[in-house]
Amino acid sequence: MFSQNSKKNLINLYIIFGFFILPIVLFLRPENLAQTNIKDVTYLVFSQAILFCFFFLVSKIVHKKIFNNKIIFIDFLCLNSFIFFLLFFYKKINFFF
């Protein structure tokens, strides 16, 4: 039904969306749920969606201008999403930058 390439792209999309949804899931732990209201949750979801859209556009521009379509965009976006996730949510990696 699906080709091998489309399965790989679908898995990469799940990974990319996971990097942007994971902070929401990690924030909504039982300890934090008692202190948050629906406004905070919607703010968190919309801010992650805006970050994803901005990051997608910047990655698309960088991919087109610098790499001239020499590498696959979905792999480039997956790598950039991973680095973005590490820079904001894994504190030990910040010592390198």
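^ that was protein a. below is b, sequence first then the tokens
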Amino acid sequence: MKKTTIFILSTLLSYTAFSQANIAAARAMGVGSTVTITGIVTNGDELGPIRYIEDATAGMALYDPAVLGAVVRGEEVTVTGVLVNYNGLMEMQPVNSVTTNSAGNSVVPQVITPLQVGESTEGELIQIENVLFNNGGSLFTVGTHDFVSNSETGKIYVKTGHPLVNAMIPMGLVTLTGISSQYTFSTPANDGYQILPRDSADIIQTGVLIFTSAIVQSNITTTSFDLSWSVSDSSSTNCNYGLTNGFGTVLNNGGNTLTHSMSLTGLSPATFYYVECYSINGSDTAFSSIGLYSTASNSSGVIRPYFNHSVDNSFSTGVAAQDINTAINDTIAAYMDLAQNTLDICVYNASDATIAAAINAAYNRGVAVRYIADDDVVNSMLSSLNSNIPIVYRDPAPAGIMHNKFIIVDANSTDNSWIMGGSTNWTNPGNLFNDYNNIIFIQDEAVAKAYTMEFDEMWGGVFGSNKLDNTPHKFIVGGSDVEVYFSPSDQTTNQISKVIESVDYTFEFGLLSFTRDDLAQTIIDKDAQFGVNIRGIIEDVNTTGSEFANLQTNGVNMRSHMGVSNSFHHKYAIADGNIAGSDPIVLTGSHNWSNNAENESDENTLIIHNATIANIYLQEFEKRWGELGAPNAIDELIDIEISVFPNPSAGKVTVKSDLEILQINLYAVDGKLLSVNDGTTIAIDTEGIYFVKVITNKGNTVKKIIVE
């Protein structure tokens, strides 16, 4: 029995072709009906223009920004409008009229379990107890976040601009309140159920002792690793761990501290361990989410990137990037030829005979071959495969596509385990030879096993937003830190943002598609920092939501690849590529910087902390950059002629150039950004040494000024 504190006096009102109904009765009238209902509003602008109302019988979504903009939580309103189906959600759209009857009302949420989030509760304010988020300790980002409650699973959705964005996801049990909603493309619409929390007050941690940081893994070896965390009060250091989420081993280090660290030792190489960390203060215990962590492998750790177009080896710091162009399909086939036991293939689209022959050859020599493909592209190569090779096509029900391009060779072998990642589909000649792409091979057993876990999840029919964040993410490969993330479950956009925020000096990115506002703003903010030089190449500059113009307008040095023969299909980024003293990073994979990649499609992303690999990708980037508008940025900055006068100055300086000046940033001598200026004259009140970063339509330069 549903329990709420809503008391509504029903009145009989006459309208042309419709009459007043309670919400349950209105819902029963079905899509296309014009209805009048009264209910209490349960949300405001935190969920955007949509509003949900509820009476004692049911709930309903309302969508009409022009009419509902002033409607706030707690108001009782009477609305008239037409019922529609929006991706599984019944809502009123348009809302023909709205009358506010009273304000300051409240609704007590109905306490349910995750499995009860569905049609019977749609549009209603609900509450679930004993919720544990899968990604506890990371940050809330735009998209879905999985949780478990008493062995039942569920999802919440956080929209752009939501109050929870960039807040830490709680570790340990919480009480979750939100609105029961739905978003699906399925027919019939029997999935896509999700909860919409409204703000931080809808997620209440249980107990006084709570985690105040994520669990951080470090010092990874073949037989051990360390875990560290912090909590809100002095407490002991403990964990449960084992090869399954049932654990089996308890480690109690005791102590009484706010910050905690413990070493798990005596472990096996290339093995995954489930760990639950916890701290005890008297009768209060704070538990972390269960994490999965890997030891290092005994594999060689070889990392080999390849490109299918020319590169600029003049930028090499020792290892030349390889352009294999017409041999790219032979190269992929050659790594398949290494397979002795297993070959798992997960590729969006394929039409190459050479690769097909290598797959068939592997099967014929007794290798267990499995293939996952997308369901709505041609994939003409698959008809050339041995009919006994099993193929799984993506479930079309969840939104998105199976966009991966990876293979796994002999995952359980120390010396012969390989994965292939990168941006290349196997279409001949399109993506293999014509479009600009990269592939990358890594010889590491632990990484191969992580890719296999992701493969197995999809092999079992689980795709898109139905997947869970259930793989390890941090590895040591040949002495280098390597991170692996799968979309849409693993908050990949947040990891990309962390890479951008880590930049000390230079950042280059090359993308087919870039539509994420949050990543664009992170780049703009980083580019504004003193001494940071950012450059970007984008193919899809005019598609809806493209960030190209936004970045360019805000002074980021951008070049368009649109209109150039063949598409720039890469999805890579390079952080501090030639700065060995920093943390050179390469990010590559199938994940475009888009909402579809983050929230819907099946993708994979590698983040490799390695100076040599970063420089190899930089050689590819510099070749493309030079082709799109020589000279390259290094020379371009030297050629910019800027006059800053008077210098020294009494407090006012003017910047002049024959180039168009887009923006001038003023920095203190310690690099702190003091002001951003659209004009060419800057007033400075305090004596001292300053720097100005002058951003022009042809590049950027930095000048030192003195105020006396």
